[in-house]
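Table 4 source record.
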Amino acid sequence: MATASESAQAGDRLLDDFSRDDGRSTLGPAWSGFTDRVMGGRSGLQAGHVETEEGPALRMRGTVRLDNNGGFVQVRLPLVVDGEPLDASGAAGFIVEARGAPGPYYLHLRTPDSRRPWAYFRAPLPVTDQWQRIDVALTDFEPVSTRARLDASRLISIGLVAYGEEFEADLEVRRLALKGAADSADNDTAGDR
């Protein structure tokens, strides 16, 4: 895996490094958090910017519970800026610098084709308790409750999600970026998952 200093490659596009004092992302929109309580579940969430020994980060903590058809906590970043969805069609995927407690974490993408709240595209986000760079290829995303294919030229949001089993979620992310196509063969960790 690449170190943090090696992770800024030519062609990458920073989405957030959590350094803004106003709580907004590098793109401009703010992160928001929600849980399965929107559909009757009982999971709990605490989310916000924190200062770590490595600098600023976004921290998502919560208890994921399966009772009452629940099972997720999530923080989501809108990717629509000035009325336009993010065009990631020239990217190889995403770079996430993260650490966390053991558990099933995912990246969720939504496009205008994901009209229903339960329709999205997901890819696993394998974390350890040590900071690491995780490369998630666009081809790693699978459709959930939709027949549409992922149209990377029209991304409207990205989510960091703890999902699917009961556990104490604790995830910190210090950098989120689009991975430039020229960087796609370098430092690829998809096979390490």
